[in-house]
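Write out the bound-state structure for coenzyme A.
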Amino acid sequence: MVKKEADGAIVDLGVAFPRYFVKHDALAAARDVDPAKFRFGLGCEEMTFCGPGEDTVTLAATAAWNVLRQKTGRLERVGLCIVGTESGVDGSKSVASHVHGLLRLPPTCRVFDIQHACYGATAGIQMARAWVSRHPSQLALVIASDIARYERYSAGEPTQGAGAVALLIGSTETEDICLTFSNISGMHASDVYDFWRPTYQKTAVVRGKFSISCYLEGMVAAYEHYMEQIQHEESTPTLQLFHAPFPHMARKAHRRLWEHRGLDPETWEPAYTRWVAPSLWANRRIGNIYTGSVYLSLAALFELEGEALQDRDVALFSYGSGSCSEYFTGRFGAHTATPRILEHLNAREEVDVEQYELLSERSLALESNGSFAATSLQSELTDVERPFIFLGIRDHERVYLQNEADWQSGCFVAARLQTSESIPTVPVVEPALTSSVQHSQLDGAIS
Ligand code: COA
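---
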C-alpha cells in the first residue's frame, strides 16, 4: 500500500440499527417467492427497518454517540462532522446539523452532509482525511446513515434495510489507528440513471439489472485507474470489502474482478469464501444501508477478526449510483475497533410481515407536518430505551427527544461532565418539548 507520512485514518467506529427486523423467509412466504431466492440468490437473511420514532437523524446520532462514548474526551475534540446520506430529512437543513445539536458537539465544529447515492460516506472520509492532516489534534466524525426504501412487492423490497456507521477519523501522528488508507484512489464517474430517488417520493426508483452492470463496470474502471497510478507495482490485497446493496452483489463484484485480473477461473469461489464472505455477516442481517454498506462490512470484519487484522492490507470498493466509483486500499493498525454489532443485532425485535408493513407505514406517517400532535403515539415512542427519538413534525420543524432516562442509565451525561463531581439528576423531559427547549433545560442542569 502506498503510504504518506501523516494522514487522517480511522481511529474507531460505531454502529446503530433500528429496533425492528423481519426474516426474509417470512417476507418470501408473504410475497409468494421461493425463500431460496432471497437467501441464496440475494444472500439476505433479515431485513431491518425503521419503525415510528426512528429516522436518518436518530440512527446517525446514535451511531455517533456509540463511537464517541467509548473514550472520554472524544466529543470535545470533534471539529468536523460530515453525514453521508441519500435519505436526508430536509431539502435544506443537514442531518449533520441535527446530530450536532443532539450530541451537543462543539460550536466551532464544521457540519454538513454529502449526498451522492451510496458514495457519500466515502467522499466524506476522503475530505475528513485531508482536514485531519491540517488539524492533527482534532477528530472528524464521518457518519454514514441511511434508510433503504423500495416499493412494497417490488424486486427491490427484499433489499431494504436501515442503519448507520459512524467513523472517527484522526491523525496518524497522534492517535492509535484502526485503519490507514492509501493516498491513491482509482476513480470512475458516469452520468447514468441506474438508481435514483426523485425529491417527491420516499422510495427509490431503480433499474435493477442495469444498476448491477453499472456497478461492475464502474468497479473495473476504478480498479484499472488505481493500478495505472501505482504502475501495477503492488499486489492486490486478498481481503476485499465491496459495496453490498445485497450481500451477493459483493460476490458478483469479487468474481468480476477475479476474471478481469485474469486469475484462475476455478479458484474465484474459494477465494470469495475465504476473503470476502466473512465480512458480510452483518449485511445479511441488516439489509442495505446504502452509503454505510461497505463500512458495515468493515465493522463486521473488525468484530470477527479483531487483532488478527493487524498489519493486513485490505481493498475497498465504494459505488454510488448515478454514478461515482472509488477503489482504494488500506492497512489495519494496532488498534482494534469493537463496534458490538452482535449486541445491537440481538437487541432488535423480530416482527411478522403484517407488523413490518404497519410499523413502516406508521414511521412514514410521522413524516408529514402536524404529525407531532399525535400525543398517544408520543407516550408509546418515549417508552423505549433509545438515546434519540423522532417525535414528528410541528410547524414544519422536526422534533427530537434526547432520552434522558437512557442517558442516566448509560454514560452520556457522565462523558459530558467528566470534570464534574457527580452526575446531576436530569428530569425525564415531557415529550411535548422541542429539542431546543430541552437543550436549555439540560444546559441549566449541567452547568
Ligand atoms: N433459488 C436460488 N436463487 C434464485 C432463485 C431460487 N429459487 N430464484 C432466483 N435466484 C437468483 C437468481 O439466479 C439471481 O442470481 P444471479 O444474479 O446470481 O443470477 C438472484 O437470485 C436474483 O434473481 P433475479 O431474478 O435477478 O432477481 P430480481 O429480478 O428480483 O432483481 C435485483 C434482483 C438485485 C436487481 C433487485 O433486488 C433490485 O432491483 N435491487 C435494488 C437495486 C440494487 O441493489 N442494485 C445493485 C447495484 S447498486
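---
The radius of gyration is 21 Å.
DSSP finds 16 helices and 17 strands in the chain.
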